[in-house]
Amino acid sequence: MLRKFAIAAAALSAAVVGVAFAAGEAEHPHDYPYSFDSPVGGYDMGQVQRGFQVYQQVCASCHGMDHLAYRHLGERGGPFAVYRVTNHETGEPELHVGQPAHGGTFVEVTDNPYVRAIAEAVIITDADPNSGQPADRPGRISDRFRSPFPNEIAARASNGGAYPVDLSVITLARHGGADYIRSLLAGYDGQTEGVLHHNPYFPGGWIAMPPPLVEGAVPYADGTATTVEQYATDVAAFLQWAGDPHMEQRKKTGLVVLAFLIVLAGLLYLAYKQVWRGESH
Ligand code: HEC
Questions:
Q1: Residue 209 CA to ligand 1 centre (angstroms)
Q2: 53, 153 in Cβ contact below 8 A?
Q3: Is 232 helix (H, G, I), strand (E, B) or coil?
Q4: What is the DSSP string of 94-142?
């Protein structure tokens, strides 16, 4: 009996090792110190804004983000949320992207000029309300992020048979999250085989996505370096925000709950002391 058990256990562990090998083929992503890694850390909104720019100018030609509408960019906690503040020198009201350290009134997305400009710069093709024929129109803030291809067949036809997945929740869907995306995008080593490119971070090692990032291709207005690695870091941060836009609020709530529980524990302890005062246990 015991021997049978030992044989079964040996067979099982061999199978587990086999599976581990098959899955462990890809290189482990670099652990980059993102601001959102810590239990209290929020997003670096400048980084999320730059990441959106990289997505919009590079990735959006192949990947959609169907879960996101342009208006989400300007909601509370979004990278282009706008607040009305008073200029200390002139006393005039002005708009401030991102929540100021103190004061500031949130401006509703419908009045957010940045989000409107982002949406209107996109050409959306849908049915004309009068003729029913496909027609181009500028985007609206209520539109979902534009899909680059009308359907999966068209997407595959343009990409050598491979499918550029929707990136809405990619950081949640892949082990390693933002670190994986960052490592993958900056991890090409130049080897190619037909339409495939070698990338040690991609399971299997060969990916049909050509290296999308080129140094200097996306101009940054804030003086941040325009290297492939920086683009990869920023776009991964944007995708992290897109997959989890309410993280900051959740962490804040978590802290409040934690503080409440600590106070409650203290009170309970004092009550316990009070009740049992003078009693010998
Ligand atoms: C020229 C089209 C093209 C562009 C531009 C492009 N991709 Fe891709 N991407 C693809 C294709 C095709 C695949 C599927 C590859 C495969 O399955 O081998 C893919 C796959 C991916 C994957 C999935 C990897 C996985 O684990 O399944 C991620 C993540 C990704 N792309 C992110 C990006 C980001 C971020 C950008 C912008 C910086 C970008 N892509 C730009 C075509 C593109």
A1: 5
A2: no
A3: helix
A4: EEEES--SS--EEPPGGG-HHHHHHHHTSEEEEE-TTT-SEEEEE--TT
Q: Ligand 1 centroid to 37 CA: how many Å?
A: 24
Ligand 1 atom at minimal distance to the Cα of residue 208:
18
- Give the contacts of 82 (CB within 8 A, at least 6 positions apart): 74, 95, 96, 97, 106, 107, 112, 113, 114
DSSP type of residue 206: E
Among 180, 187, 234, CA closest to 211 = 187
Tens-digit pLDDT profile for residues 76-130? 999 999 999 998 899 899 999 988 888 899 999 999 999 999 999 999 988 888 8
Going by alpha carbons, the residue nearest to atom 39 of ligand 1 is 59
**CB of residue 186 inside a 6 A radius of ligand 1:** no
Q: Which tens digit of pLDDT belongs to each residue from 5-23? A: 555 555 555 554 444 444 4
| Alpha-helical segments (H) within the chain | 2-23, 45-57, 113-120, 152-158, 170-173, 177-185, 228-243, 247-275
Label the pairing between strands 123-127 and 82-86: unpaired
End-to-end CA separation in angstroms for the chain: 51
Residue 158 near ligand 1, beta carbon < 6 Å: no
Neighbouring-strand partners of residue 93: 86
Say how far apart CA 227 and CA 208 lie, in whole Å: 22
